[in-house]
């Protein structure tokens, strides 16, 4: 009998917050907030994202990434800085690295009715795999709903009104990203599948990948593997939320390592949802998070300005 790996992140049940009584909701708020404060990562069950939808999107994504490179390149969107459509292998790197990560990806962004806004670029339709975009859009909405609930709990943890984030995430700049790490065919020069980094956004929601490799760096500087179980999704704090809370909530460094050599032939597929607010949201440090021990750590900035700055750092925007 195989022994399951010890847990490295706490596990919470979102239905306790969405459907529980006052005591259950308060307990959830504390558990989630403490996980974000102490570790920056948490596993979540009871999130309401249908397993069939996740499984079907995985299948469609695999079909897309199996297409010839020249076909996939039809879906690279000029000027979108990787925020819509296909980004080919070797384009993105961690901000402290000049070596590109070993991945290609496809990004689905917010669909809004007002096409006159130059902030939003339409998502291209993938004609070769028609279900890819329809399933992706459904999954986007499911992630958005679960993420909204988690942010309501975090608002309460921070002593704010429960709906503090609501107005900012409606029509926000969130991204659903399907990442394909192809089989490794030769000794990599120095890159790993995804070099150590922190996410840019408020929070990231990640459904279990098709293979292992995700690791977080703990406060002692040690790398610990994260192994999601069953229908668990992994949530982590992004730099925007860390910035807003003056480092009280932690945007923890993480990476995706290469598998053992005997598993190099296995590709890896991963589906993160990066929950972003609207570009005009201010990320100025919340006064309640400033103390003598934790003075203001960041200059005032909007979410749009911060995203722009970070996309340039990681090589997606020129």
From TrEMBL:
<dbReference type="Pfam" id="PF14226">
    <property type="entry name" value="DIOX_N"/>
</dbReference>
<keyword id="KW-0408">Iron</keyword>
<comment type="pathway">
    <text>Alkene biosynthesis; ethylene biosynthesis via 2-oxoglutarate.</text>
</comment>
<feature type="domain" description="Fe2OG dioxygenase">
    <location>
        <begin position="171"/>
        <end position="277"/>
    </location>
</feature>
<dbReference type="GO" id="GO:0046872">
    <property type="term" value="F:metal ion binding"/>
</dbReference>
<comment type="similarity">
    <text>Belongs to the iron/ascorbate-dependent oxidoreductase family.</text>
</comment>
<keyword id="KW-0479">Metal-binding</keyword>
<protein>
    <recommendedName>
        <fullName>2-oxoglutarate-dependent ethylene/succinate-forming enzyme</fullName>
        <ecNumber>1.13.12.19</ecNumber>
        <ecNumber>1.14.20.7</ecNumber>
    </recommendedName>
</protein>
<dbReference type="InterPro" id="IPR027443">
    <property type="entry name" value="IPNS-like_sf"/>
</dbReference>
<dbReference type="InterPro" id="IPR050231">
    <property type="entry name" value="Iron_ascorbate_oxido_reductase"/>
</dbReference>
<dbReference type="GO" id="GO:0102276">
    <property type="term" value="F:2-oxoglutarate oxygenase/decarboxylase (ethylene-forming) activity"/>
</dbReference>
<dbReference type="InterPro" id="IPR005123">
    <property type="entry name" value="Oxoglu/Fe-dep_dioxygenase_dom"/>
</dbReference>
<keyword id="KW-0223">Dioxygenase</keyword>
<dbReference type="InterPro" id="IPR026992">
    <property type="entry name" value="DIOX_N"/>
</dbReference>
<dbReference type="InterPro" id="IPR044861">
    <property type="entry name" value="IPNS-like_FE2OG_OXY"/>
</dbReference>
<dbReference type="GO" id="GO:0051213">
    <property type="term" value="F:dioxygenase activity"/>
</dbReference>
<dbReference type="GO" id="GO:0009693">
    <property type="term" value="P:ethylene biosynthetic process"/>
</dbReference>
<keyword id="KW-0266">Ethylene biosynthesis</keyword>
<keyword id="KW-0560">Oxidoreductase</keyword>
<dbReference type="Pfam" id="PF03171">
    <property type="entry name" value="2OG-FeII_Oxy"/>
</dbReference>
């Amino acid at each position: 009998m195989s022994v399951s790996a010890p847990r490295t992140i706490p596990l919470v049940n979102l239905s306790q917050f969405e459907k529980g009584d006052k005591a259950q909701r308060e307990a959830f708020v504390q558990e989630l907030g403490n996980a974000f404060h102490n570790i920056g990562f948490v596993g979540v069950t009871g999130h309401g994202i249908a397993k069939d939808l996740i499984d079907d999107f995985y299948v469609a994504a695999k079909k897309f990434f199996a297409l010839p490179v020249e076909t996939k390149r039809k879906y690279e969107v000029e000027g979108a800085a990787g925020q819509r459509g296909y980004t080919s292998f070797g384009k993105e790197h961690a901000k402290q690295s000049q070596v590109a990560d070993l991945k290609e990806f496809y990004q689905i962004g917010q669909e809004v009715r007002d096409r006159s806004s130059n902030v939003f670029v339409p998502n291209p339709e993938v004609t070769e795999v028609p279900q890819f975009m329809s399933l992706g859009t459904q999954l986007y909405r499911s992630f958005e709903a679960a993420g909204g609930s988690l942010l309501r709990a975090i608002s309460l943890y921070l002593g704010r009104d429960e709906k503090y984030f609501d107005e900012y995430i409606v029509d926000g700049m969130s991204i659903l990203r399907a990442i394909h790490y192809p089989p490794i065919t030769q000794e990599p020069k120095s890159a790993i599948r995804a070099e150590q980094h922190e996410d840019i956004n408020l929070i990231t929601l990640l459904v279990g990948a098709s293979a292992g490799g995700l690791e977080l760096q703990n406060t002692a500087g040690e790398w610990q593997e994260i192994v999601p179980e069953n229908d668990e999704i992994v949530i982590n704090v992004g730099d925007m939320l860390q910035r807003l809370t003056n480092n009280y909530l932690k945007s923890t460094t993480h990476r995706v390592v290469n598998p053992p050599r005997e598993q190099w032939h296995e590709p890896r597929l991963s589906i993160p949802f990066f929950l972003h607010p609207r570009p005009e949201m201010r990320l100025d440090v919340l006064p309640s998070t400033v103390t003598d021990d934790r003075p203001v750590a960041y200059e005032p900035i909007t979410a749009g300005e911060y995203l722009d700055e970070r996309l340039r750092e990681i090589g997606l925007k020129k």
